[in-house]
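Lecture notes, unit on protein representations.

Consider one protein chain, 291 amino acids long.
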Amino acid sequence: MFKSGFVNIIGYPNAGKSTLINSLLNDKLSIITEKAQTTRHKIIGIESTNNYQLIFTDNPGFTKPSNIIHEYMNKKVKESIIDGDIILYVVDLSSKSIEYGDLNEKLKKIKVPLIIVLNKIDKVDQQILENISSKWKTEFNNAEIWTTSALNKFNVENLKERIIELLPEGPKYFPDDQWTDKSERFFVNEIIREKIFNYYKEEIPYSSEVVTEKFKYRNKVFRISSSIIVERNSQKAIIIGNKGSSLKKVASQSRTDLEKFFNQKVYLEINVKVVKDWRKKSQQLKNFGYN
């Protein structure tokens, strides 16, 4: 009996969804930063064996929309609730400020297995854990409640075994050697964007996008040319920094990670371009892959 299915991971920003999917796959599929709303696109990660094919999807964080990107992100979460074979709903145990009503009401109506993952168990004491667990058990009678620390991989392997048990019988949707649905260019963009989130503060990470224009492999070297897109000239100046120091740091760190990712030497060129108010322009968002 071969088992396969789509395991869709959803939650609010900063719940640790991306850390969880990376731990479940034992690989770095999604970028991770301390800032909320790092994940903007739905990303599929695939693990294939002789007995099963696990297809994890890391979705953007569900949030109160304040721009078109947020609307796109929420749309992807809602789609994942509908089309998943198993839903993992990741909750930040340490958060005290999130109202979960919008997503909870939708999840109470689903017919597929639902696992509520109370994540960041390392951030709370036993009493808080028991109180929060009791609350979720009371609210959801159609769900299993699991506690994890995705960062420390606590209880992650046990959770994965349970997910495999819940997988339905099904065909092999992807070839054995395929591990994601995204292109190499996508991961170049994400690795650079991760450095932007880590290095810059306030609005800069959220006002920026990365586009890779040239991607060639020649003489055992990846030659990559990418652009960081921002909305205003003042943001461009911050990205570049004094005498280009900030941009050089982003490029250097990105190149190091790209060489690890491709296991090849990388020549990386990064430019900065201004596209005024790109987050408010539907056509521009489509050009950047927000469909």
